[in-house]
Amino acid sequence: MSRTAKAALGMVVLAAVAVSLLRRRQQSDPEQLLRSYYDAWTDGDGDAVRDLLAEDYCGHVHTISGTEEHGADELAARVASHAEAFESVEYELEDVLACDGEVAARVTMRARHRETERDAETTGIVILRLEDGRIAEEWSSWDYLGLAEQLGLSNS
Questions:
Q1: Class in CATH terms, 3-150
Q2: pTM to 2 decimal places
Q3: What DSSP element (H or E) covers 46?
Q4: Which positions ≥6 away from 88 have C-beta within 8 Å?
């Protein structure tokens, strides 16, 4: 193997180790895991969200019509459909609390709705239960009615 090939191989190995260490740090830090979760939502990256979830992930989302439950694959699909509905998405994490394998936050989403071309802002509360550095369970409640009113989609 030539000196150039050895150097290139060394750089590839070094990059792989760096990525692995960064991923471990993100997964061992509950607040960073939460930030990575919402970064993936911002990017509309269902695969990135899926990578953060435990195989047996279960989400409990309080909606206008009641509490919906979904698994990891359904959540990844929701991230993709959210990206189709909204652009210029930003999440602000406020009041982040982590304790005993759980992380909770008050979250504000700001975005532009593609269909109505209206800017909107909504707040929610999210609690994530972590297991082995991944999100095993999620409870969230968002102001969907307020969001629908801002977008002109509500009858009230």
A1: alpha beta
A2: 0.79
A3: helix 46-52
A4: 110, 111, 112
